[in-house]
Design a protein that fits this description.
The chain is of the alpha+beta class and 433 residues long. It has 14 helices and 23 strands. Bound molecules: uridine-diphosphate-2(N-acetylglucosaminyl) butyric acid.
């Protein structure tokens, strides 16, 4: 299938029904980064079929791993690793490409990797990763856009993170499993994806304590064993579908989720006037009137997720009264703002905050996704807007949403994927002369 597509949405339907949530992109990427620690075959179930995961698997093949797919499972054999010289093509698009460094170093003693990229939502340095690996005994140099790392034997270390970075916690925790001695990570992230990675590592024989608290301790072992694990469901895709229900004044249930992962969102939606219910593995949000404006501030887990800030802003664009959405994690996760304004929203940026004056109606427009979650925000706005919305740059959305348009269609949304070329020929309105 061509990578160049648009999503064409006819707004105005009330979304109703349930969605079975696919595997988590961010948990999958964290686990895949740790797979080369295992000299043998790892079998993963429920790996999401999203673009970032496909790219990551291709990159892993470059380092000598073999990947086999079956019905509902993927096996990665990391027995024979090689310290390949890998080009930027598979590394720049995704940030977690860099998180392979620690595992490859622990196994090979020497590795180089181009500097990572990822969604353009802020500077996104990797200094915590580098400092942590250096404390474990790695020598790392950045030259011509490539990190070159080597070590004799990685050793346990005391690491304090200046910010509870999900990625640095995952990368350093995984690497520490194959060091000599004890590693302590203080001010560690508590994101569910850190827990998912720890479950995988423990299943392979790692010794890890304190996951889910701000201090994690890892006692290094000689080797990790082949194992089988299941990638948990994606809390961020789940939140997006709940918001699709809220923005269309509908009633959406997400199934296969851990309700506690939706607590921050659900409580903010309740504050805005929505109704929510939950069971042991499902959450439902329903809404039969216009929401009220509220304040939202992103925080590390269990705070309100930065990844849901943009979709939430789309919902608040239609709420009654004023809202403020404050982003504290990334300095420029704001690509949705100008596009939502193009659809009739009334939003402006002030420092790290988006100030929103709710409007009664948005109207469909041709808009461009600038990153993954901005794309999700535009799709949500399109579902609620009057008339037709066309979202371009769908490849950003494909990074982290599996079958987004199919799930939304099943809920009653009118949304279809069209190859860009076909849309340009058949549907695109002639540009004004
Ligand atoms: N940071 C540093 N130095 C570092 C690492 C992080 O300054 O060495 C800063 C970042 O610049 C950012 C903050 O720390 O300001 C938090 O970054 P974190 O490391 O927690 O984020 P990440 O691991 O790069 C993951 C997710 C993001 C999600 C964040 C926060 C993956 C692949 N990505 O990124 O997901 O927003 O955690 O929860 O797991 C997305 O899915 O759309 C996405 C961007």
């Amino acid at each position: 299938m061509s990578e160049l597509n648009v999503l064409r949405i006819q707004g105005g339907q009330r979304l109703e029904g349930s969605v079975e949530i696919p595997g988590s992109k961010n948990a999958a990427l964290a686990i895949l980064s740790a797979v080369p620690l295992v000299s043998g075959v790892t079998r993963l179930r429920n790996l999401p079929d999203v673009r970032d995961v496909r790219i990551k698997l291709q990159l892993m093949e470059q380092y000598g791993m073999t990947v086999t797919h079956g019905e509902g499972w993927t096996e990665i054999d990391a027995t024979h690793l090689k310290a390949a010289e890998v080009g930027e093509g598979l590394v720049r698009p995704i940030r977690t490409s860099f998180y392979l460094l620690g595992a490859l170093l622990a196994r090979l003693g020497k590795v180089s990797l181009p500097a990572p990229g990822g969604c353009k939502i802020g500077a996104r340095p990797v200094d915590f990763h580098i400092k942590g690996l250096e404390l474990m005994g790695a020598k790392i140099e950045l030259e011509s856009g490539h990190y070159h790392a080597e070590c004799e034997q990685l050793k346990g270390a005391e690491i304090y993170l200046d910010f509870p970075s999900a990625g640095a916690t995952q990368h350093l925790m995984a690497t520490a499993t194959l060091t000599h001695g004890l590693t302590v990570i203080q001010n560690a992230a508590m994101e569910p994806e850190v827990l998912a990675l720890a479950d995988f590592l423990k299943g392979a024989g790692a010794k890890i304590d304190g996951v889910g608290t701000s201090t994690i301790t890892i006692t290094g072992v000689e080797a990790l064993q082949p194992s089988e694990s299941r990638v948990p469901e994606d809390r961020l895709q789940a939140s997006t579908y709940l918001l699709a229900g809220a923005i269309t004044q509908g009633n959406v249930t997400v199934i296969g989720v851990m309700p506690e992962h939706q607590m921050a969102l659900v409580n903010k939606l309740r504050e805005a006037g929505a109704e929510a219910e939950e069971g042991h593995d499902w959450v439902r949000v329903s809404c039969n009137r216009r929401l009220k404006g509220i304040r939202v501030k992103t925080m590390p887990y269990p705070g309100f997720p930065t990844d849901i800030q943009q979709p939430m802003a789309a919902v608040l664009a239609l709420a009654e009264g004023s809202s403020v959405v404050e982003e504290t994690i990334y300095e420029s996760r704001v690509g949705h703002v100008s596009e939502l304004n193009r659809m009739g929203a009334n939003m402006r940026l002030e420092g790290r905050s988006t100030l929103i004056e709710g409007v009664e109606q948005m109207s469909g427009a041709i808009v461009e996704a600038s990153d993954l979650r901005a794309g999700a925000a535009l799709v949500l706005a399109g579902l609620a807007a009057k008339g037709e919305t066309v979202v371009r740059n769908v490849h950003f959305i494909d990074r982290g949403y599996e079958n987004l348009e199919n799930h939304l269609s099943k809920l009653g949304g009118s949304i279809e994927r069209i190859p860009l070329e076909e849309w340009e020929e058949a549907y695109r309105p002639a540009s004004p002369r």
